[in-house]
Amino acid sequence: MTTEKNNALLLVVSAPSGAGKSTICNRLVETFPDMIYSVSCTTRAPRGEEKDGEHYHFLSRDEFINRVNAGEFLEHAEVHGNLYGTLESTVRRALDEGCDLIMDIDVQGAAQIRAACAALSEDDPLRKRFVDIFIAPPSLEELERRLRGRATDCEEVIQKRMFNAMKEMEQKDDYAHLIINDNLDVAFEKFVNVVCMERQKRD
């Protein structure tokens, strides 16, 4: 999907758990070598074989907070006592190198990025390259069926995921593109079509 002109996109992708977001995004990265995942920062310790700069940028809590105060993050949040966030410099660097950058992120993080990009000048490359996409299941009933089909979560976790999904679905209209994942192959093709269409807008 590479072109001579740098019209790389910042693809901000959200979905309820079980909607197929990770599967679709992983396939995109595997299919198109110029499409990569954004690497977030975190204050949690590395796990297993995680490498700094590849899986996460591992920062001390003080360094993270200092960079938040300096306005360096496009979005950030605290999850289970650990801080996570995306540096604006990381995103700009990847886009300048001609890579489509996928940000697999929840609706709260997407809202932060949407607001940050909207606050930039109209000719700012980051604002012009921002594209938000929501991947949804065909119905909440189907989503629950998929979650139960995993056979990995207890009833309490399933109910929590369903509650969160209902809240997340309420924000789907905030996104420029909505992809219903009724069939994985079809949803993947729709995603590719969105990327092609958004690139054409910028030619």
UniProtKB/TrEMBL annotation:
Its EC number is 2.7.4.8. It is found in: Cytoplasm. Belongs to the guanylate kinase family. GO terms for cellular component: cytosol. ATP binds at residues 15-22. This is Guanylate kinase. It catalyses: GMP + ATP = GDP + ADP. Its main location: cytoplasm. Keywords: ATP-binding, Cytoplasm, Kinase, Nucleotide-binding, Transferase. It comes from the Bacteria. The lineage of its organism: Bacteria, Pseudomonadati, Kiritimatiellota, Tichowtungiia, Tichowtungiales.
